[in-house]
Amino acid sequence: MHTSKPSRRTVLAGTAAAAALTALPAAPAAAGAAGSAPAYRWRNVVIGGTGFITGVLFHPAVRGLAYARTDIGGAYRWDERTARWTPLTDHLGWDDWNLLGVEAMAVDPAHPNRLYLAVGTYSQPWAGNGAVLRSADRGRTWQRTDLTVKLGANEDGRGTGERLLVDPRDSDTLWLGTRHDGLLKSTDRGATWAPATGFPATPDPSGQGVTLLVAAGRALYAGWGDGAPANLFRTTDGTTWEAVPGQPAGTSAKVPVRAAYDRHARELYVTYADAPGPNGQTDGSVHKLGTVTGRWTEVTPAKPGGTTADGSADTFGYGGVAVDARRPGTVVVSTNNRWAAVDTLYRSTDGGRTWTSLKEPAVLDVSETPYLRWGGEQPKFGWWIQALAVDPYDARHLVYGTGATLYGTRDLRHWAPWIRGLEESAVRRLISPPSGPAHLISGLGDIGVMYHERLTSSPSRGMATNPVFGSATGLAQAARRPSYVVRTGWGDHGNGAYSTDGGRTWAPFAAQPRLAEEAPGPIAVNADGTVLLWTLVHGDGTGYPAHRSADGGATWSEVPSFPKGATPVADPSDPAVFYAYDTAAGTLLASTDGGRTFSARATGLPSGDSQFRVVAAPGRTGDLWLSAKWNGLYRSTDGGARFTKAGSCRASYTLGFGKAADGAGYPALYQVGTVGDVTGVYRSDDGAGSWTRINDDAHQWGWTGEAITGDPRVYGRVYLATNGRGIQYGEPV
C-alpha cells in the first residue's frame, strides 16, 4: 500500500447520479470474436474471508438483514434464507478499481430497502476520487454519485466509523465524513453533495478528519481525528455544530474510533485510541456520555500498560463498540492492536460498571476455514477488532471482524466464522496442475499458498506450512514433472519451499540467497525440476540479481546476466531453456544453459511499464506470448528471436492457457484485456485470431490484472485472480 499523503483539496458539489447500474446479462461477443458470447457462470473458489472486515451493520428494523464492508473487496449483504453473504459491488469494472474499498456504509431505519456506500480505496494523489453508491433494493441495483474528494478505505483509520449517516430526522438528508475535506452533506438522498456549513473543525491534509458519525436521539455526533479544538462535535438542528462540552481528560490527543448509542439509557459510548488503527495503537479508553445530563463517565474495562505473564508490554487501544438494542446498559467493546495478550471483547450488562472478557471461555470452531489455524497453531480469538455488532433481535448473536475473518456466536461462548460467501483474498499467483487431486494451487496476499482439493470448500490443509509464509511472491510447477512445485514469499522462518507431491506438503529450501529474507521475489523451475531461478525483489520494487540453484535449493549462485527484478520463465519442454523480459530495455533474453547465462534476443519491444508478462505455451518449445498491458499482445514462435503483434486486442494485462476446444489444434487462451473498447475477461480458441468476452457487466471485480489461467483438464474453465474478491472461476453453462 502506498503511504504518501495527498495534498489539500477544494471540495465542490458532487455531480448528480448517472443511470442506475444494474446486473446485466452476458455482453455480446467483442469485435472480431468467433460467434456469440457463451453464457458463463462465475463463482468464488471457496477459502472464506482472508481479508480485513472493517464494518458490520445490522439493520435496526429488519430481522436477519445485515451488511459488511471490507477495505479492498467491496460490500456484502447477509441473506438469512440462504445463510450466505451476497457480494454487492462486483459490477465495478477495471476503470473503477479504486472504488472496491468501502470507506463507510449506512442504512435508513425508516426505509429498509435503502442502502448507501461511500467507496474509495485510497486518498493518495495517484488515486481517483471517491463515490457514493445509492440503492433502493438492498444493493441489487445502484445509482452512483461521483465525488470531488478522495476516500481511503485501505488506509490507516479504515476500521473507524461509520463515516456515513442517514439523518434520523429526515431520510433525504445524508452526512459523509471525509479524511481531508471535512464534513459533507446531501439533502437529496445522496445525489449531490456539498460542504456542511457550520462544522467548526479544520481539515488536516495529513490527518484523519471525521472518524465517525452517529445519531443519538435527534442529535448527531461526529468524531474528529485531528485533535484541537476538540475531537467530538454535535448538532441538534442539522446546521449548528459545537464541541461536546466537558470532554474527558486525557482524550483530547486521542482518536475517537467508534461510538454506539443506548437509546434506553440515553447514553453514548465512545472508544478511544492514541492512533486510528488498525496498527500503531498503544493506549486507549472507553467513555460514556449521558446525552441528557451531559455527564461523562469513564468505563474502560482494562487499562493498557503493564506486562503479560511472559514479560511483554501489554499495550493496546480500544476499537469496536456495540449496544443491545433492547436491554439498557448492555454493551460490548473490543481491544485493538493487543498483540502480547491477544485482543478480546469485553461485555457489560450494567452500563460499564463491571465487565466480563469473552475471550477466556471462548470455544473457536474454524473447521470450515482451516487456514485460521495459521499453520497448525490454535486459532487466535482476534486482532484488528474494530468491526463489532450486536443483532438488534438477538442479544446473544454477536459478531466481530478481524484481519482475516468475521466471527459470530449465538451463545457468547461458541464462536465460528460467519463468512460463507465473503471472499476478500488479494490473489497473486495461480497454477492449475495437469494431473493430481487438486485442480488449483494459489498464492495469496497475507495468507500464503493454498492447495485446493475442492473449489467449493476451504482447503482442508489450510495455509501451506513448513514454513508458513505470509504473502506469496512466487509459485511455479515443473512442466514435465508436475509433482514438483516451488513457492516463495514473506516469512519469518525461511522464504522458499518445495513440494514433491504436487503441493500437498512442503519442505523449506536448505539454504537461500542472502537477500531473500528482505526481497523474496518470483521463482521459476525448469521443465524437469532440476534447476531453480529465484529473482530477488524488495517490497518497494527494487530488483536485485537472480540466483540459481541446481541442487534443490541447497546452494545458490548469482546470475549476473539476468535482468534485475525480472520474472524468470521456464520453457515447458526444454529443461535447458529459461526466458526473462527486461522491461526497462524492451528486450527478451534467453538462456540455453539451464539459467547460467542470459543473452538478448528480440529487442525494440514495449518498455517502460512494469506490467509485462511473458507466458510460455504448454507443451511447446519456444512458443512465447508477451502480455504488454496497454501495448497489446505479442507472440514469438522461435524462442523470442522475433515477436509479432496480435492485432485482435488493444491491451493485454495478464494471459494464461487452458484445455483446447474439441477439434482445436492450440490450447485455449484466456486473458484480461481490451478488445475493441471493452476491457474484460476473454477466451480465444484460435490462437488469438479472435476473442470472446466471457464475463459480463455484473461480474467485473475491479482490478483483475494479476493472474489468470485456464484448467488444462476442463475445457472452458478459467481461474481469475482479483485484488480483493478472491479467486473467481468461470465455466460455460
UniProtKB/TrEMBL annotation:
Q: Name a GO molecular-function annotation.
A: hydrolase activity, acting on glycosyl bonds
Which BP terms from GO are recorded? polysaccharide catabolic process; xyloglucan metabolic process
The answer to whether keyword Hydrolase applies is: yes
Q: Where does the signal peptide begin and end?
A: 1-29
Keywords, in A-Z order: Carbohydrate metabolism, Glycosidase, Hydrolase, Polysaccharide degradation, Signal
Gene3D superfamilies per the UniProt record, alphabetical = YVTN repeat-like/Quinoprotein amine dehydrogenase (2.130.10.10)
Pfam families per the UniProt record, alphabetical: BNR
Q: Which family does it belong to?
A: Belongs to the glycosyl hydrolase 74 family.
Q: What is this protein called?
A: Endo-1,4-beta-glucanase
Q: Which organism is it from?
A: Streptomyces glaucescens
Phylogenetic placement of the source organism: Bacteria, Bacillati, Actinomycetota, Actinomycetes, Kitasatosporales
